[in-house]
Design goal:
Blueprint (H helix, E strand, L loop, with lengths): L1 E5 L4 H12 L3 E6 L4 H6 L2 E4 L5 H8 L4 E4 L10 H21 L4 E5 L11 E4 L12 H15 L6 E7 L2 E2 L6 H11 L4 E2 L4 E2 L2 E2 H14 L9 E5 L5 E2 H11 L8 E2 L1 H17 L10 H8 L2 E3 L2 H7 L7 H7 L4
Parallel strand pairs: 1-2, 1-4, 2-3, 4-5, 5-7, 6-15, 7-12, 8-11, 9-14
Antiparallel strand pairs: 10-13
Helix pairs in contact: 1-7, 3-4, 4-5, 9-10
């Protein structure tokens, strides 16, 4: 198949590009920056924004599928920036698929679209979107996911995947933040035994390919969203310290209470909003809730509908981490 990967220079997008190339697919990548390794690996590249419809149409011409991975992440920033990338950009991707008669769209969503700040223990895809969100990322990813699912039709089969907390070697996000805060002495754990599941990078990429292979007009997975994870809930502070141990760093023993973490999030957001500070606060309400709540998901629907099987365990993933 010939596939376009938006955000192919990113962590997940790059893993999907490599997985597609490894099995012999023809890959095109659209990304905002320059990533020489993409062409060296065998992908054709376009540099541009997903809101640039002309570039998007050229990049997707002749494709059989689009993996829409690009998006604005993070927990802090201007709403319009999130909306422009996550919502308007997704609308452009859908338009390009229809204009170029591309039959399959695999969209990368997030479990945060249903996170309401309460424990989520083994919930499934019947869980509704919450009435209120903690940040613009949650809200705009939910709007984007809904656009993708509503676009499912006889002309375009769509599916949305919700991989949870992706990590692995070279991860600049989850592991990058943990290492940065640990080495600077600013990492604190929130007291509790809350269980959290995560997704090893190879499993997340494989889920996208498996969903694409199963996706057809009228397929069971068409027009639906799916949770993706390793299926191995772990006590959060134990997992964080296991990651630190993999990088030969000492465990974090300093803790704060959930109430204090949330209070710090409220105060930080107030100060940063009042001061119009653009950089991300050390704590937000969303981060406080994520650190103190249980959040793991039932992945049986993905197993059943397109054969998703996480093949790299957390233990194996930790062994693959390499100290800098």
């Amino acid at each position: 198949m010939k596939a376009l990967v938006t955000g192919g220079g990113g962590y997940l997008g790059g893993a999907i590009v490599r997985a597609l190339l490894a099995r012999g697919d023809n890959v095109v990548s659209l990304q905002r920056g320059s990533y020489p390794w993409l062409e060296q690996a065998g992908a054709r590249t376009y540099t541009g924004d997903i809101n640039d419809i002309d570039t998007l149409l050229r990049a997707s011409a002749g494709c059989d599928a689009v993996f829409h991975v690009a998006g604005k992440t993070g927990v802090w920033g201007d709403y319009q920036e999130y909306h422009q990338t996550n919502v308007a950009g997704t609308a452009c991707v859908i338009h390009a698929c229809l204009k170029n008669h591309i039959p399959h769209l695999i969209h990368t969503s997030s479990p945060s679209v249903v996170f309401a700040g309460r424990d989520e223990a083994g919930i499934n895809e019947t869980t509704p979107y919450p009435e209120h969100y903690y940040n613009h990322y949650q809200r705009t990813k939910a709007l984007a996911e809904q656009k993708v699912l509503m676009a499912n039709s006889r002309q375009l089969a769509t599916v949305a995947l919700r991989p949870h907390l992706i990590w692995g070697p070279g991860d600049p996000h989850l592991i990058g933040r943990i290492l940065k805060r640990a080495t600077s002495g600013r990492l604190r754990l929130v007291k509790g035994e809350n269980l959290v599941d995560t997704t090893y990078i190879d499993n997340a990429a494989a889920a996208h390919l498996q969903a694409a292979d199963a996706l057809q007009v009228g397929a069971t997975c068409a027009g639906k969203a799916y949770f993706i994870s390793n299926g191995e809930p772990r006590v959060l502070h134990e997992l964080i310290n296991a990651i630190l141990a993999a990088y030969r760093l000492p465990p974090v023993t300093k803790t704060i209470t959930p109430a204090l973490a949330y209070t710090l999030g409220v105060l930080s957001e107030f100060v940063y909003t009042l001061g119009r500070i653009k950089r991300e606060p050390l704590m937000t309400r969303f981060v406080a809730k994520q650190l103190s709540c249980t959040h793991w998901y039932d992945i049986s629907a993905a197993r059943r509908d397109f054969g998703y099987t996480p093949t790299i365990s957390i233990a194996e993933g930790l062994r693959r981490l390499k100290p800098a």
